[in-house]
From TrEMBL:
Main location: other
Compartment annotation: Peroxisome
Name this polypeptide is given: Uricase
Record EC number: 1.7.3.3
GO biological process: purine nucleobase catabolic process; urate catabolic process
Natural source organism: Theobroma cacao
Pfam families xref list: Uricase (PF01014)
Record-listed O2 binding positions: T63, N264
GO molecular function: urate oxidase activity
Amino acid sequence: MAKEMDGFNFEQRHGKARVRVGRVWRSKDGRRHSMVEWNVNISLLSNCTGAYVRDDNSDIVATDTMKNTVYVKAKECSEQLSAEEFAILLGKHFTSFYPQVFTAIVKVVEKPWERVSVNGQAHVHGFKLASEKHTAEAIVQKSGILQLTSGIEGLSLLKTTKSGFEGFIRDKYTALPETRERMLATEVTASWRYSYESVSSIPQKPLYFNECYLNVKKVLADTFFGPPDGGVYSASVQSTLFHMAKAVLSRFMDISSVQLKMPNIHFLPVNISSKDIGVIVKFNDDVYLPTDEPHGSIEATLSRFWSKM
Ligand SMILES: O=c1[nH]c(=O)c2[nH]c(=O)[nH]c2[nH]1
């Protein structure tokens, strides 16, 4: 909230960034363990302008206290919970415990530790790191109003065919040939807003948001690839992105909008020829030069009409 100060507009917030916490839960007999590793970012909107303009820190929640709160709350959670639930729990704490705090923005990034299988059997306490991360952000108001967003960071997807790009603008600077046969590779960053509008209206089913996360990830990947036996043709990254976003909104009625960022990560055709021998390597949709940069940058947000995102 902007405040008028000495004839200026003033906005401030403070918080603690990158608080890392690991939490292990043990079954009653102690044998089966579950675990999470979270990176928590807290930002509080509060009435503490005195600290900025009058050297008065009496309304400041110390960022060190915020950090400690993450560990205390993690300890107090006796059952495994989702990143979303932990973000909401922290947001509720900061907005209800401190009269000065009117909004808490809590972001949690979960490292993808997955239970390992040994000889086809789920291990009781062994985990390995996968690649894409689960993100959650809760914006909690003192009144209990909630904005809840979840996401995926770093979901790398690639298909070796059924992708093309034709019919785009051609001008004197255009060198790219049209094609109906190319590699399509991307690293999806997704975020989706849930329609729950208050902390009291979120589903109470244990680990509900973890289930949603896995389901959304599956719908995104399945739509990108198409059926296993033949895939689906992609006319552009833009078209595939739109189909992926639409599939999410059609399947999950408690999601009101979805944002997808899908860089077009290029695999360049390799052709080599020499003056003496002539053609050494002729590209036949087989040998590529993988690249990181530059990459196409394609992003869009799809929302229901009544969405508040
Ligand atoms: O799917 C694509 N979308 C683009 O906008 C674009 N631009 C480009 O050079 N190649 C591609 N591919």
